[in-house]
Fold this sequence. Notes:
Radius of gyration of chain A: 14 Å
Largest sheet of chain A: none
Helix content of chain A: over 70%
Oligomer: heterodimer
Radius of gyration of chain B: 24 Å
Amino acid sequence: MNTPTGLTIGGLESAYDQLATAIDDVGPDKSELFLVKLALLAAQQLGDEVAFGELIAKAQRDL
Amino acid sequence: MHQPTTEPRRSIYYDYRIHQPWLPSQHGPQPRHQVVIAGGGPVGMTAALELARHGVPCVLLESELQVSEGSRAIVFTRRSMEILQQVGVADRVTQHGLPWRFGNSFYRGQRVFRMEAPQDDNDRFWPMINLQQQYLEEFLVDACEASPLIELRWGNRVTGLVQHADHAVVEVDTPEGPYPLETEWLVASDGARSGLRSLLDLKLEGASYEGRFVIADIRIDLPLPTERLAFFDPEWNPRNTVLMHREPLNIWRVDYQLPEGETPEQALEPESLKSRINAQLELIGHGGKTWEMDWCSVYSARTLTLPDYRCGRTLFIGDAAHLLPIFGVRGANTGFQDAQALGWRLGLICSGQAHESLLASYSTERVGAAREIIDEAGKSTRFMTPPSRGFRLLRDAVLSLSLTEAFVRPLYHWRTSRPHEYSGSALNSAGDDNALFQSGPAHGAPPANVRLGADDFLLDHLGGGFDLLVFGATVPADVQAAVKAWQAKGLKLRVLLIGQCASAPGVDACLPDTEGRARARWGVRTDGAAYLLRPDQHVCARWMTLDAHRLSAALQQATTGVAP
């Protein structure tokens, strides 16, 4: 059985709120730059460019 | 009729000298030459000098009557210096140039990255040296004029070309009109706007980037070391990039990107230049200092190459063959390697030591090198001048992160030009011990220099033909016999014994390796190991123990591209 990874429901709700608040805080002019910075930091933390590529592909779906 | 200017170009630091044009009426009928080189820039002259080293005469056509305008290529790499040493001008470049090894990138007033190019005690030359191109050309002109094998014809411009199976007829225009010139081989070193490339209707492949840069040379007294300075998104030029390099004689190169939508003409208006250069000087804390403009131009990054550097009897080298971005100093530095790679092959062919099919490997190796450079240069160009919204966002994100996050800082590295390793070359020996070595230069790699004494380095002793480096105290008798047999056929092949020897039979030079530096750098563990270097000093075979049979096989492979 796979070890469960990822956030708990509560953790996901917290991340959701934090990100939404941060996007509002930086404002429309800077939110795109902010999100790209965040993505790079997350990619570095993930330490796996293949997995990061899969996340990019998932995020590209159903836009 | 070709009328090159007879007015010396203007410069505040360089005295241009006008040479007399070569006029056909003052010379007899022209024989068919073995090699004509079209374009007397640094790359064409290096090719001529390299050919002369192999004993092959050439005619070198230069359309102007003086060396090039402006400083142009100003940074020369260690490998370029090693090549220039081969053709005899490295000492003068060292004498006049400014060596360096550090680069700095700045964002919002903070130094966010410092590049340190490695410097080994075994290297004679620094990673980089700055010198204005006019001086390098002057040194090369002097060397060409001193060679009895090079006929440098000033004021001779190629205007036509007809290719035949075994020769080409070039139409050359002069101040008194055109004349035909027959040659077995034509080397096109006529630069970025190559007329020969157009005459042959050849198309470059690759990408052109939108970002344009002003390149300006100013004379100013700045108390700063010779280091590369790069400024990203400075307040006076938002979103764009500015570069600064020190040149000899208190000249500074300032490169800055044009704001989007501005034309080159607008950018070169004196008032615009003045206010922007003042703003940049202000940024580095030297606002208000007086300065004088010498030369300026507009440049845009391109990563383009011909897919094949041979077209019939015409062979392309330098900017005529490929256009590479200035970031990473890849233009002239790539061209010298082309000149050297072509020079020895044409030398062998013209002296009857090789078949013209050897030229296929010239094109394969150097197109491969250009494509590798394009791939690397593309990365730094995309960082310096982001080509799309996505690339700009990522670049800006990296700039912002770099103020606090170390992991993104290596992205500032501009991937300086480095010599290509011809790992897959058809000239590499199939039956040697390449794979058995754990270190040292492998198949196709450029040589590793070694300090042998106070002012004595391994590369001082190499070149002009094949070099066989034998590590140990003696050269086996069967190897000596094989070397003699190849020399008797006319091949230039020297044997250098590296060890503790004084002299030994069958050896052209003994190089003492008292500290074992050569063994360490070349990955040699036991006596009897050997390296075979091509005339461009790239490795084409190496052995743990050498025997006559395998030496001959390697030489045959290296001179034909085919295994025996």
